């Protein structure tokens, strides 16, 4: 019962967070970005990476940790080609200028992730009346599942189960623009359950 | 590097899963090992192969769920050995190779997130408990890996996002 209330609360909060994050992404991508209703899952699921191209797809993005009243993990993952398009837009370059995740591209993706990830964390803080601080972003460029799995392991190693919120962003043509994944640490679940009750 | 036979069937071994095969047309694959560790086994006599995809170092007495039989290094390795033996392999003949255990969430977080390192260590210990020393390992570092074992030959390959498949 407590779990149901938690999922319900987090779904509502994640929706608000995703809308705010999507607004940030729309501004940076220069086009309308739509958001799927975020998933809130309890337990590990193999399909978390399907939106960005499945098991072995390469992604570019960033990892942020959350500290404050609760602790947890935030990841923004973009299909590499899409991230590079974004970099051109953000830097005012003609499309196709950036062809690899060089230093400038990584810095731009870090900034993008900072804005989108922080928008989500701030929504979480506002809606739940918590004080939360997102860390500076760390750039990640790897196989999507390796990144998601590492967050699973980190959370599960602390005991308890993994509660994961994920929101998929889509562009005007319905293509995946990115995925936002948020997972609180198990020690924070009790606090969240109290808020949900 | 030997390419798998064109008619090869790739069997994905997901997080916490393990697979045993005697079908020479199969390639067992653990995609995108981050802090997870893959353990590939091959018995050249019985031609049985196995692959486990371990997520965490220690079951700590927790019940192992059927859904993820190889979630933990200790209970996962024990089960891998049991299933291999049941399929006709002999633990003393096994060629065991281990890959994964990276810290993929960036150098700034590598000090904090040590699950990969702990996984690799726990697997080394559990294999030792079964009297097995890995024939080859590719563990640690900062990049995710995909590990595959070709059941027909026992050949094992590792690739990363940045590098093509190399035989382990």
**pLDDT under 50 segments of chain A (min length 5)?**
none
Largest sheet of chain B: 5 strands, mixed
Give the overall shape of chain A.
globular
The coarse overall form of chain B would be: globular
Which series of helices and strands of chain A comes N to C?
Answer: HEEEEHHEEHEEH
CATH fold topology of chain B: 60s Ribosomal Protein L30, Chain: A
As a whole number of angstroms, the C-alpha radius of gyration of chain B is: 15 Å
Mean pLDDT across all amino acids of chain B: 92
Characterise this structure.
The complex is a heterodimer of chains A (197) and B (168). With 197 residues, chain A is an alpha+beta fold. Chain A has helices at 2-29, 80-90, 103-128, 144-156, 186-196, and strands at 34-35, 39-42, 58-68, 72-79, 132-134, 138-143, 163-170, 176-184. Chain A has one domain (2-196): 3-Layer(aba) Sandwich (Chemotaxis protein chec). Chain A is built from 5 helices and 8 strands; from the N terminus they run αββββααββαββα. In chain A, strands 1, 2, 3, 4, 5, 6, 7 and 8 form an 8-stranded antiparallel beta sheet that branches. The longest helix of chain A is centred in the first third of the chain and has 28 residues, at 2-29. Chain B is α+β, with helices and mostly antiparallel strands. In chain B, α1 packs across α3 (115-129). Classes of the chains: A alpha+beta (197), B alpha+beta (168). Chain A binds chain B through residues 44, 46, 49, 55-56, 58, 63, 65, 138-154, 156-157, and chain B through 12, 14-16, 31-36, 55-57, 68, 102-109, 113, 115-116, 118-119, 143-146, 161.
Structure keywords:
heterodimer; A: 197 residues; alpha+beta; Chemotaxis protein chec; 8-stranded antiparallel beta sheet; 5 helices; 26% strand; B: 168 residues; 60s Ribosomal Protein L30, Chain: A; 5-stranded mixed beta sheet; 3 helices; 10 strands
